[in-house]
Amino acid sequence: MPRRTDIRTILIIGSGPIVIGQACEFDYSGAQACKAIREEGYRVVLVNSNPATIMTDPALADATYIEPLTVDSLDRIIDKERPDAVLPTVGGQTALNLAVALDAAGVLARYGVELIGATVEAVQIAEDRQRFKNKMIEIGLEVPRSGIAHSLDEAHAVVATTGFPAIIRPSFTLGGEGGGIAYNVEDFRTIVESGLDASPVHQILIEESVLGWKEFELEVMRDHADNGVIICSIENIDPMGVHTGDSVTVAPAMTLTDREYQRMRDMGLAVLRAVGVETGGSNVQFAVHPQNGRIYVIEMNPRVSRSSALASKATGFPIAKIAAKLAVGYTLDELPNDITRETPASFEPTLDYVVVKIPRWAFEKFPQADPTLGTQMKSVGEVMAIGRTFPEAWQKAWRSLEQGRAGWGADGKDRIEPERLRERLITPHPERHFYVRYALQSGMSVDQVAALTHIDPWFLYQFERILNIEGKIRAFTLNTIPADLLRQAKRMGYSDVQLAHLLHVSHPIQGQKLPTIPPGPWLPELAVRARRKELGILPTFHCVDTCAAEFPAFTPYLYSSYESEDEAAPSDRPKVMILGSGPNRIGQGIEFDYCCCHAVFGLRAMGYETIMVNCNPETVSTDYDTADRLYFEPLTLEDVLNIVDIERPAGVLVQFGGQTPLKLARGLEAAGVPIWGTSPNAIDLAEDRDRFGALLDQFAIPAPAHGSATSWEEARVVAAHIGYPVVVRPSYVLGGRAMAIVYDDQSLERYMREAVDASPEHPVLIDRFLEDAFEMDVDAVSDGQNVVIAGIMEQIELAGVHSGDSACVIPPYMVPPQHIETMRDYTVRLAQALGVVGLLNIQYAMQEGIIYVLEVNPRASRTIPFVAKATGVPWAQIAVQVAAGAPLQLTDTTVNAGPERYSLKTASQNVQKPLYHVKEVVLPWARFPGMDTLLGPEMRSTGEAMGSGTTFGEAFAKAQLGCRHMLPTSGSAFLSVNDRDKANLIPIARDLAELGFTLLATAGTAAALQAAGLAVTQIYKVNEGRPNVVDYIKNRQIALIVNTPLGKTSFFDERSIRRAAITHSVPTLTTLSGAAAAVQAIHALRNGGWTVQSLQERM
Amino acid sequence: MEALLVLEDGRSFRGQSFGATGERVGEVVFNTGMTGYQEILSDPSYCGQLVIMTAPHIGNTGVNDFDPESWRPQVAGFIVRFHSEHYSSWRARGSLSQLLRDHQIVAISEIDTRALTRHIRSAGAMRGIISTEDDHVERLAARARAAPPMIGQDLTRLVTCEEPYHWTEGSSAFKVTCAARQTTGMPQTPGTPILHVVAYDFGLKRTILRRLVDHGCRVTVVPATTTAADVLQRQPDGVFYSNGPGDPAAAEYALEPLRALIGRVPVFGICLGHQLMGLALGGRTFKLPFGHHGTNHPVRHLHSGRVEITSQNHGFAVDADTLPAEVEVTHINLNDQTVEGLRHRSLPAFSVQYHPEAGPGPHDATYLFADFVDMMREHTRV
């Protein structure tokens, strides 16, 4: 059946800010859906609060709303756009839940809007554990036995059916707090009691344990004619017990016989039919008993998912695109397979390679968090690697992770604590696979390791193969290793860096002429590379073709291996290579993928062939139709040079993918690769404090006093010279890693002795901390001469909070015009002096009327997508065109440095009031029980939302809603601030009182407020008596909390307040500037009249 | 031990032997299934062929007693990218390489199976030779060229049974079909066997027999050369024509009994049985460039419009244009539009090119066994 003609406009719901468990895979699926539906001639309306997404690019939809994902907001959009249908299956659980809520609120019925791609019923069955379980039993499938209990007696009754070990999960606690596994009656009693206590509703779920069972996933698609296909099977190497998002996984499944696989396939299709997924893709998870093959259905998601993004990248089958087409009426056989062109989409991809996915965690950012992996997902990103065999893919995946490892060990960097071996094998942990390696190396047998880890022995045998060859290699040097063995090692996925380590390479071999990397050391891996080339051991590239070479592939989606025949077939068109940003991590996420995609768009518009290199399966950049050619490869010097060797691009762009490609810039340049845009030398200059300091001095541009130290003694001298407080951090780190603000010698000593490993190569940097300063972020584009300011953002939090964790606003709302001019002037001069060609980001601080330069980054910044959305200008595209040699075209509005486009534009269109645009961040506190929620110089946010409005308050309120921070419009506000903040709290408290809030405060704060004539009720701190503030929070008697840090003594008290607030979702502001902004937002919310506006309307 | 694979056009691949020593010639074909190597190996339709598995890891789950499609591996040789000596499966009883050595099957691993597959895809299926004994490419290529081509070869006599036998085992030994397609699901518990099927064995797969039993049939398997009179004497409710190796046009001896049976008893054919049906009804067959060997082939059932993902293993196909008017094409392959199923418009006879029994492969088409049963019941009533 062809596409439906009874619908015209389709609303697509995005997934909102990036959070753990719901990341940029939904930008990938949403962007695909937009394209797929629009090319069918429908009018697409899109809503997503996340400005960093490609899907919210105005070019992708007819009407793009960067608005909160709430029923209220959607109601307004639906009222305005009158869509005929809503597609909720490409925006994660957020979109599904919102669709259900829209249905429940009667919004869909009121406007006659139909849900396509999923029914409310199906979503509810999949979500509701009990209904899902019943449905599965109804169709003859098995599920783990479980039951709900509200008392110990009930619990005993349930466990009688589930047996031991039993899993106890308290309802509605965060991160599974208060739960556990009971192996006997005694344990059981203890855990049940603590679980009931931890649960706010005194309810626990008791479940039969399937820990250690094998875990599989199927990506299933079905159309309305009941045609069903399996796109991909995925096997979790980490067995049941570890969330699939935290598991290392492999595709296709490696340890199933056909009989078992087909049985699972039958079940997968049956689950979709039973749940009622009529069109689209679903992920179905299974647990398989390793000794008897018994299969349990664990869960299913009636929508595209992280796994479906992985499956799409793993197979070349675009699940989200096809799901969107099925939702508008097509059947699978009516859709072509884009890659083979000749064959239809109604088939099952077959792989002649192996794909390995490894999650990336960020526990270094959350030192108090428990890094044990369990049923709550904790990873923030992932990498995927493709190899012809499992060992090859395995090694490539480990080196793709960019955690300083050159592969799965064999790089001299293992940090093993041998005495913890058993514990580390038994308890899933981010380092577990390195302990598996150590265990096998130190003589533990496959059976022993399998018994402790429950990893299927087949994988362990593969690990043994990898280790065997490692042993052979070690016996040689680079001069003596036989070519055969070297080739075998490459076929096993060993990187040149690993081989350099194993072959003891410490100097170039005789007669080899190798580039050195100025000013750094000569790289041993380049000696291996040179030797390999001499021996003719070169990589080959192969197509991901969905069909194991049965049909020719037309889409150049490539991966490397060491086989006999290369399929890359590079063109002779002028071409440019864009290096992507690798795995998402805190500080480097979707924003950089946005920039990379825009680099592709900009270059394509200039007629270049574009080549993308990236290893992150969640991204839009790794969609096979984003760039002309896609290399799904690790972003290491070796792998990138291999692609350069075969493609010979005219230029390589390193400034769009964050730190990942920048780290490669010097190595690439030394190897003679043409880097387009800002030179690696200029990038270095900006990062080198001495060189950069000299430049600032030359222009008489103020910067905070600074120095560096390699020991506590040195640090003390520097700090004394600079004056406290100081910001300390290790050199060469990202996202404020291990950064701290230190107020005295004592803390400085502790920091130097305990927190960092300082060395002459890696000194600790010490900067004067500008207290109570306002911070500003400026993004600009330069062609070396002309400089255009893209946007000036004012941080809402004061200095001391990492800019990536602070809300910010365009245009600045509290910065006097002369300071704006100063920043503009500095930006232009610095861009010119550094010779920036492309993007530039500068962080400024304003303290007591002086503008200081804090940091200059001559590259794409995290804020570029936000600025692009706020100003309506695709800055990354402009920057890439400048880097490709085009002159900066925006000079018509100004010589050298124009005022921001948005203000020009709004000035010329008097009908429209200038808009404020606020970016707010989301923090992953709920995932990490035990973490304090204070903001600091270390970035910890995972995502962002944007709100726009005619007043700052409206914009801020919408940004809060976009992050699902539900600011109250009435109730009680609890205030507890430190002494320094007391004076500044008074106007905020007064505003709150005027807005009708009842004020509650702890003794000191209450006294200050009372002294200012405000009515306030004093309540107890945690350690003063009952009922205390935490009791108030638990009883939902507090709607808003303003709590600035009081210092070490009351640390525990505050922390328990903030944790309770997280558990009970009470908005908490830990800075006064944040509180002041929130008050303005509440004011705007109380006035009620916020509006929704599409990006297209603003243009 | 090293092994060498040489194609008739001189292209060679050097790898490691993981099966028996020796030298075998055969037609080189590739199978794109990611699972089911044990079934593929033991499928008699692969007689005379050197089979490439495009999935890179083979042998992971070892071998077990229940999965073979016949009593021994049937391929002439086996070609893989990587073979796992170590295996892991609760059902496994031994390693793949041991099985191959036990049955004197040569096998080669560590070769670029993707390059080889691409070559076969563009140059077509061709003869090849695997040797662990000779290291001379030209000599081996000459020997490959000296082997008879697949066209014109009748291989069914090599794999058919010698004596008739009864088959009573169903699939229940391993519960497979707990959740097949609603409308096409197999019976959960086989009923009392009431229908008698005589199954011609041209290289019959066990899964077909089990499916027939699952659907309430009792089966007598007869040798390929059995006469129609002999079959009719057994008073069957239906006759089944099995899969098998080689060129259908060369198995002329089988057509006469088939022509005699069509119209007298319901006849169902699979794979070679389908090709024979096409020939018996007046059509012709032709050789496909590199055949269909895999478990992901989309087939449209023209009556319902539904798409089935099917298991396939054939190098020849029935030419639709040669079929007489009384024969209807019921299924087509959506990849290349070739005939995948046909039926006689008035007589109780139908056949499919693909493998609805699915061993290995998806269970989307098990309804055909139910159709056969319905046809037999209807015919008995009449």
Widest sheet of chain B: strand order? 10-12-11-13-14-19-18-17-15-16
Radius of gyration of chain B: 20 Å
Task: Tell me the number of strands of chain A.
Answer: 39
The SS-based structural class of chain B is alpha/beta
**What pattern of helices and strands is seen along the backbone of chain B?**
EEEHEEEEHEHEHHEEHEHEHEHEEEEEH
Largest sheet of chain B: 10 strands, mixed
Please indicate the percent range of residues of chain A in DSSP E strands (runs of 2 or more): 15-25%
* Helicity range of chain B: 10-25%
What name does CATH use for the topology of the largest domain in chain B? Rossmann fold
Strand content of chain B: 25-35%
Helix tally of chain B?
A: 10
What this model shows, in words?
The complex is a heterodimer of chains A (1099) and B (382). Chain A is of the alpha/beta class. Chain A is 36% helix and 19% strand. Chain A contains 37 helices and 39 strands. In chain A, a hairpin with a 2-residue loop joins β31 and β32 (850-857). Chain A starts with 8 loop residues before the first strand and ends with a helix. Mean pLDDT of chain A is 91; it is low at 891-912. Chain B folds into two domains: 2-146, Glucose Oxidase, domain 1 (3-Layer(bba) Sandwich), CATH 3.50.30; 156-381, Rossmann fold. Chain B is built from ten helices and 19 strands. In chain B, α1 links the parallel β3 and β4 (49-53). The longest helix of chain B is centred in the last third of the chain and has 15 residues, at 367-381. Classes of the chains: A alpha/beta (1099), B alpha/beta (382). Chains A and B meet through α9 and α16 of A and α3 and β15 of B.
